[in-house]
Amino acid sequence: MKRFAGKAALITGAASGIGRAAALRLAEEGSDLYLVDLAADALAESAQQCGERGAAVAHAVCDVADESQVQAAVAGCAERFGRLDALCNIAGILLLEHAGNTTAQQFRRILEVNLLGTFLMCRAALPHLLESRGAIVNTSSTAALAGMPYAAAYGASKGGVSALTRTLAVEFAKQGLRCNAVCPGSIRTPMTGSGSLPENADLQLVSRAMPLDEARGPEAVAGLIALLASEDGRHINGEEVRVDGGTLA
Ligand code: NAP
User: Fold this and answer.
1) pLDDT per residue over 158-195, tens digit each?
2) Which of the listed residues 13, 128, 131, 237 has the most CB atoms within 10 Å of its CB?
3) Helices 67-81 & 117-132, crossing angle to 10 degrees?
4) 17, 13, 208, 237: which is closest to 134 by C-alpha?
């Protein structure tokens, strides 16, 4: 399938996990790619892998929580490819901590990256996406759909991403711009590999979020992101789709 032939996509968090898998998937489907992340070396590696799949690729180190860096990244994409058809907001950070021990500074940073960063990217990309009648795919989480213990900041940030997604979907639907979110759960990535539980965590509480079958790789989410960003998703708008193997069904 070459659903993205002649199109350009900007992907954040593209150096790792779900972001890299989405970049590779869109590369295989013919998209030009502008890849963004904080991790310079891993980002360059993602770009190389996408190039090997035939994509025209540019990449830029960018903190999605920084307004001017976000503006520069979107401008760089528009300059390089002359268009933007799909924005995939995948960059994110996780904090597992008892709510009572979560500092204001930690809470603020999680909101800045996961929620403000998603908003800043959407806002900067809007003129281009309206022109192309394109699509936004945001990354929420099962933590936005059900209580996730020890994730006060993270869960709040993803709840905000879900609400932002529905807001943009409705606000721009008449202009042909769609906005959807994926809600992954139990996906094997560096984030889930390194996210250790806080001391004295109640394992019974945590066990509700365990996969019913088995954890999957990030490709399981990339396929859905590609669907929502593509013409196959043309009548899907303001939707949040769980990719968690049925944990929250
Ligand atoms: P990951 O492997 O850690 O990838 C996240 C990427 O985002 C990393 O390369 C990270 O760079 C980058 N990033 C972090 N802060 C950034 C910033 N301020 N600006 C630009 N890039 C930044 O994690 P993942 O599991 O693929 O997660 C991707 C998204 O899926 C996240 O939004 C996450 O919340 C969401 N999600 C994942 C799961 C899961 O089961 N894996 C479940 C629900 C939701 P650094 O490595 O330098 O920080």
Assistant:
1) 999 999 999 999 999 999 999 999 999 999 999 988 76
2) 13
3) 30
4) 237
Looking at ligand 1, which atom is closest to the CA of residue 112? 18
Tell me how far apart the alpha carbons of residues 138 and 29 are, in angstroms, rounded to a whole number.
19
pLDDT digits (tens, 9 = 90+) for 10-38: 999 999 999 999 999 999 999 999 999 99
- Here the tokens at position 73 are 């990244």
Give me the amino acid identity at 237.
Answer: N
Q: Evaluate: CB of 73 within 6 angstroms of ligand 1.
A: no
Residue among 157, 91, 86 at smallest CA distance from 125: 86
- What is d(CA 101, CA 208) in angstroms, rounded to the nearest whole number? 22
- Which atom from ligand 1 is nearest to the alpha carbon of 158? 34
- Two tokens, residue 239: 């939707």
Q: Are 92 and 114 in contact (CB under 8 A)?
A: yes
Which structure tokens are listed for 66? 């920084």
- For 37, the token pair is 């992340």
